[in-house]
UniProtKB/TrEMBL annotation:
Superkingdom field: Bacteria
Residue numbers spanned by region Disordered: 1-81
Organism the protein comes from: Paenibacillus ihbetae
InterPro entries attached to this UniProt entry: Stress-induced_KGG_rpt (IPR019626), Stress/Virulence-Domain (IPR052590)
Name used for this protein in its record: General stress protein
Taxon lineage: Bacteria, Bacillati, Bacillota, Bacilli, Bacillales
Pfam families in alphabetical order: KGG
Ranges of compositional bias, category Basic and acidic residues: 26-36, 66-81
């Protein structure tokens, strides 16, 4: 979206433009590497219980948002591999 001189850019617009500019300047490998570094740092700073808790919360949220048919479908897809 072009910047209108009568209004400021929203955070959403600024974030999107910044993300697009960053993506143009970095490769997939760059993002993989920073993801690995972030994962290692997180694992150093959190316990097993932390991962169990966030896994449980994620599973509960997924079960609230998806039907039995969703789980049947992903089970079939997983069984094909």
């Amino acid at each position: 979206m072009a910047q209108n001189s009568n209004r400021k850019m929203t955070r959403e617009e600024a974030g999107r433009l910044g993300g697009e500019a960053t993506a143009k300047n970095h490769s997939r490998e760059f993002y993989q590497e920073i993801g690995k570094k972030g994962g290692r740092a997180t694992s150093r700073n959190h316990s097993r219980e932390f991962y169990q808790e966030i896994g449980q919360k994620g599973g509960e949220a997924t079960s609230r948002n998806h039907s039995r048919e969703f789980y049947q479908e992903i089970g079939r897809k997983g069984g094909r591999k």
